[in-house]
Design brief:
It is a single chain. The protein is α+β, with helices and mostly antiparallel strands and 105 residues long. It has one domain (2-102): Chitinase A, domain 3 (Roll). Helices cover 32% and strands 26% of the residues. It has a 4-stranded antiparallel β-sheet, sandwiched between helices. A hairpin with a 2-residue loop joins strand 3 (87-89) and strand 4. Helix 1 (18-36) packs antiparallel against helix 2 (41-48). The chain is globular, with a radius of gyration of 13 Å. The N and C termini lie close together (9 Å).
């Protein structure tokens, strides 16, 4: 199974304190709550994502993922267009939206 996912990354820096991690998790939760309330995902990426290297164009947060276990586990049961619960990755907290799914050939 291959999935095309959009994501919002709220980065957690190395050496972050417990309070910093909690504040960043709360920021990611705000983005998730806003999306589930109907906010446009593209707008939320611009507002919440801490990934300055990604251009803010139509394809900015799309990634073909076949082996990132946390992402796959969080999104496998979702339908296209749905958003997963927060996922903690080595880089930080992520809000993942399923853009498309395809069975690998």
């Amino acid at each position: 199974m291959q999935m095309n996912l959009a994501h919002i990354l709220v980065a957690v820096p190395d050496g972050a304190t417990t309070d910093q991690v909690a504040a960043l998790q709360a920021r990611a939760q705000q983005a998730l709550t806003a999306r589930r309330a109907g906010e446009d995902f593209t707008v939320l990426v611009r507002e919440y994502s801490m990934r300055p290297t990604l251009p803010m164009a139509a394809s900015w947060v799309c990634a073909r993922l076949t082996g990132i276990r946390e992402f796959v586990q969080a999104t496998l049961a979702l339908s296209v267009g749905e958003v997963a619960a927060l996922v903690r990755s080595p880089a930080g907290f992520r809000v993942l939206k399923v853009l498309e799914k395809a069975t690998a050939a």
